[in-house]
Amino acid sequence: MYLATTGRRDTPAPPRTAGAGRRVPGTVLALGTVSLVTDVSSEMVTAVLPLYLVLGLGLSPLQFGFLDGLFNGATSVVRLLGGHAADRGHRHKRVAGIGYALSALSRLGLLLAGGATAGIAAALATDRVGKGIRTAPRDALITLSSRPETLGRSFGVHRAMDTTGALLGPLAAFALLQATTGAYDAVFVVSFCVGLLGVLLLVLYVPGQPVVSLPEPRSPRTRKVFAALRDRGFRRILAAAGLLGAATIGDAFVYLLLQRRLDLPVGWFPLLPLGAAACYLLLAVPAGRIADRVGRRLPFLYGHLALLGVYAALLLPAGGPVLLLVVPVLVLLGVFYAGTDGVLMALASPVLPADGRAGGLALLQTGQALARMLAAAGFGAAWTVWGPRPALWAAAVALLVALVGGRALLPHDPSAAAAAEQPGAPTTERPTA
């Protein structure tokens, strides 16, 4: 196990031993464990939330799309501030811990809100703020603990552990709904307890400072976060991620479309994310390894091509066995996340300076989140005005255009080029007795 020291700064890491490059860094494994537990907590809520809001509280697709998009995009400034705070004092663990704690506390907010829309909105906002704060510092810790040539593998391992939690969360929600006859409060209580466990694991097992030596920040100004925009390669990656994000309607709408088309019983709705999560779990590490070998540009594009396959499957004529629609949709959705989530971070990380990496990644995540906010709100509005099928046709055409644009924008293997210029970052960490 790997424990943080009680002081503000960790002692220097010992020299890298032979064969250490073949091992996954301990920081990555510790963060993966934290993410696993936290995702059990968050996915318990996420699995039932669309059903709870649309069927339980009667929100229209337009209202749901606006709410989902707003909370995904409203964290943008928080992401930037979180990345800046983490870089400014090398406080990656502390800033991430605040984010994890806020997300855990938001479960209590859902419990106390009852059926009040304002209370639910506040709780969801708290959860998204927590996620926005923690994501960039966490991903920066992964990059700062890994060698540039193994970033894809490190992110793949982390995302696989993260997805294990995403797989277990809906199962736990399903079991609780079956045992309590649809009592959403039970889901929120258990989710809160599991979220607190994730915070405790972060405090105990994640080192307090990256093992790579970082220079002291020379500028305390928030605008240093935007310094990454000076790099042409990063600007093109950001533009491509934003363009493709603007055509990504989000899983919640995919699951609602499946439920509507197949008329699935309410109690089975939380199980829909399991297929996508299982596929993502199986493919996350292989996708990361492939990205390390062939470059991260093509896997990122192919992942969005899989999302286009999701849209196409949902547009097929109705009829036939249920599994002939459910299985391809969920498998392709898993392929989409395996090829894009960690791969995007690995694609951008080598072109960012070590002492500004959290801020740069936060900027990238912010651009993607804003684009997806517009996509969710736009799709919800199109569904309300035109109906689900024309709205999905519009999303498919938009994604096809975005794929063409993304292919032109993404630089050829910027990660590999930057990795060749940087010295390897040490990954050996201090084991505890």
Structure in a nutshell:
With 433 residues, this protein is mainly alpha-helical.
Taking pLDDT < 50 over at least 5 consecutive residues as the criterion, the unreliable ranges are 1-20, 213-222, 414-433
SSE pattern: HHHHHHHHHHHHHHH
β-strand percent reads: under 5%
Structural class: mainly alpha
Number of helices: 15
The number of distinct β-strands equals 0
* CATH fold-level topology: Growth Hormone, Chain: A
Helix content percent band: over 70%
CATH class membership = Mainly Alpha
Rg (CA only): 21 Å
Average predicted local confidence, pLDDT = 80
Give the overall shape. globular
Number of domains: 1
Describe the structure.
The chain is mostly helical. The protein has one domain (27-211, 228-420): Growth Hormone, Chain: A. The protein is built from 15 helices and no strands. α1 packs parallel to α4, α5 (117-144) runs antiparallel to α13 (357-386) and α11 packs antiparallel against α14 (388-409). The longest helix has 31 residues, at 26-56. The model is unreliable at 1-20, 213-222 and 414-433 (pLDDT under 50).
